[in-house]
Write a structure and sequence with these properties.
Length: 204
């Protein structure tokens, strides 16, 4: 509740800039989750001080700016330098080297598709940009997949707050169900990818 009040306070003072800033932080500082930021922004829009479209654009812009910065860090620095940085400062960002290694393994195993779906999965959203840069994924493709996933996610969250912001219990129920749906979709896609790889190996 305190975090929600703080987020709403920033939006009231800074408007769209505040939303973009908060969504930027969501990507680099996971304890500030988009699941609170965007519904709060959507609810604020429903009160008339902001527009729903403006909220979606601001949230998507802030999130994509952070994704581009994290991609650049992964692209520019060596693996060893990144892991040294995470080992030394990751605790302040609630990130561990094991998390980065796991995200890198997911990226290398499942390919560029993980970027799209990763933008809609908590924790993964904050980590997937760095492995994308480390793996030298083409920047235009990274931004395309990231933008699609980000816009879908921020639009969904903002609309939940806009239309159901007065009913906190219903919002929580929707989030819990959507979480299962996203996980199920990811599992199905991963299964299809692994099955296709299995078929290719059998042909060879």
């Amino acid at each position: 509740m305190i975090l929600t009040d703080w987020i709403i306070g920033i939006m009231e003072r800074l408007g769209y800039l505040g939303i973009a800033l908060l969504m930027f932080l969501d990507n680099v500082f996971p304890p500030i989750p988009s699941e609170i930021i965007m519904p709060s922004a959507g609810y604020t829009a429903s009160q008339g001080s902001l527009t729903l479209m403006g909220v979606i654009i601001a949230g998507s812009f802030g999130s994509m700016l952070a994704a581009a910065v994290l991609y650049w860090l992964g692209y520019q620095f060596s693996h060893a330098a990144i892991f040294r940085f995470v080992d030394r400062y990751g605790k302040y960002l609630f990130i561990k080297s094991e998390d980065v290694k796991k995200s890198l393994a997911w990226f290398e195993q499942y390919g560029h598709r993980i970027v799209f779906f990763g933008r809609m999965v908590p924790a993964v959203r904050s980590l997937i940009s760095i492995p994308a840069g480390m793996s030298r994924m083409p920047f235009w493709k990274f931004m395309l997949f990231s933008s699609l996933g980000t816009i879908i996610w921020t639009t969904f969250l903002a609309c939940i707050g806009f239309y159901f912001g007065e009913n906190q219990a219903l919002m929580q129920q929707i989030f819990s169900q959507v979480g299962y749906v996203i996980v199920a979709i990811v599992i199905v896609i991963v299964g299809v990818i692994l099955y296709r790889r299995h078929l290719r190996k059998k042909r060879h």
